[in-house]
Specification:
Length: 725
Amino acid sequence: MDIKTALSQGLNSRQKALTEFQAKQLLRQYAIPVVSEAVAADADEAVRLADETGYPVVLKGMGANLLHKTERGLVHLNLADNERVRRAAEHVVATAGPDLEGLLIQPQLESRREFVAGLFRDPQFGPVVMFGIGGILTEALSDVSFRLAPVTRADIRDMLAEIKAGALLGNFRGDAAVRAGQLEEILIALGQLGLDFPEIAEIDINPLLAARDGSLTAVDALIVPGQPQAVSQETLAVDPGAIGSLFYPKSIAFVGASGQLGKWGHMLMSNTISGGYDGDIYLVNPKGGTIAGRPVYSSIDAIPGPVDLAVVTIPAALVPGLIPQMAAKQIKNMLLITSGFGETGPKGKQLEKDLVQAARKAGILILGPNTMGICNPHNQLYCTGSPVHPLAGSTAMVAQSGNMGTQLLAFAEAQGIGIRAFSGSGNEAMITIEDYMEGFEIDDLTRTVMLYIESVKDGRRFYESACRVGRKKPIVLLKGGQTGAGNRAAASHTGAMSSDTRVFNAVCRQAGIVKVDRSMDLLDLSAAFASVPLPRGNRAAIMTLGGGWGVITADLCANYDLEVPALPDAILAILDGILPPYWSRANPVDIVGENDPAIPITTLEELLKWDGCDAVINLGIMGRRIFVERMSASVRKADENFAQDILDLANQMLVDFEKQYIAHVINLMHKYEKPVFGVSLLTDQEDQTVYRVGEDEYKGLFYETPERAVKAFARMYEYQRFLNR
């Protein structure tokens, strides 16, 4: 019987799996090494086959419905003679009952290393390949790694690097290292099997034994059939060029405009006008009259001029009635703020579906519904529910949460992080995260993509889009709702150990997405990618005003797999000439609180020009002006007669120095193409994360804590490794 037929029969009869013998036949067709074996019908034939195989042997019960045979006592190992084979066969026959379809006889293979490899079908992303530490403790240890199929050799190297017990893959207690090429071929073949046979739900090879010479053999295999299913794809792709047009309207109609404070129809209008948008603005409300000194039109068709974007805040039930009016007015874009659609349940979902069908037929693109708005600082468009006005920049931001989006925008404004464009994506009835990414891909002003997401509509498209975009510009992503993801109910170890979180994390690693765990990390990384060059390696030079701070930062570097190499003699000699005799004479470089402004400037350049370092972390150089301001206040309080001009001069000197230092840092990053990560000594309300000098592409980057600076360096290096791969 061929495998297609076996899979088909398994589906039709609802059997749990192919027999182990059938599963291994399929694996052999894909050049996966499997143990030699024979099938016996009864105990007498089992003894004869064991004699032919040679002792010791393994005897197993075989049947399509015999899963997890070890737990059921249907696997007997190391049988040394024919009498033991007979007793084992009789026990299996009695235990398995009518589910038994035969007895498998295999040679006993010796191995001190057991692995597991497999494949399962994720409903969002399709076939996923798994590898990890195998044996009877596979699920207990859960030391596994995942990647989407098809997998490349580079993907597999990354998978192996994630295994905590990775030492088992190398030379181990006299055994040779696992044959890397053979292991790669096995995992590539599993991925191809998943692509070639959509009717396979799960594949499990456990154990995959490593012999003393490092060769691999599959001694047990499970293949579970399942109904072929298309990967979830709820929406149609939107033209990437159409995404950009949404953010550059020459005229806006606010449908549902209101003069009442606190209503969306009032907030959006007010924030758009106050933000400096200079296009035509039309207010629409059936009551007519005036709002904010502007005429109010009773309907869309009463608007005298053309309209590029309709911002809609009327009740959900009334929104479908706008489609014919917008079509007649040739309005192509709708920003649908209104809630009451898919997020409310089945009735709302149907209303949303019907609206989308009508809009698509009329050639209207809907952003939302249930969104908090959009902004584009490059044309002074701030059409959001919150009056925040971040600077124009290169970070494109999309958030699936209105509250999170508002917080991110406000922080970006406060910290000087420039925004290319922002969208609260809402329910994503028409425009999805995948569409946004493809829009950013062709946008020349976007250098960094920042995403807060809770789900994706089309997992495979999300992955493929991210792979393309990530090669051109970094994607920094924060995922909400991860802790609620539960394990799948699965027949195999492979499926049982997978989860939504694990699969999504694997997708991010495979696509080069820089995934972060906290909202502050999201902004810190976006600021770093938009402000400093990528590090070419992971070697850090640390310059600090105090020794303890430098020690802590060095420890943090070790925690994030960054190196802190020793200083060469040439740099030691140079720094000996400008620092006091009691300086650290090591990396971290402790400049011992010296006040000479030339010292940090000279030291920084010497470290950047050093070919043994890939980035400099400087601690405490910025923020000293705050220290001096506080010291001056203390002096004035203690001595009212102290010369005010001296205090003012000291304050001004530090203010001037910090401006010069930022400009110097930017010049050095251009000169040596290495990033500089700063940590401020003290901060106040005037301080930012990003400091600009004119229109320079590089900027001064200063965090509040060493951990944030180290983490930014580590994640940027992670992205550089992806590009190098």
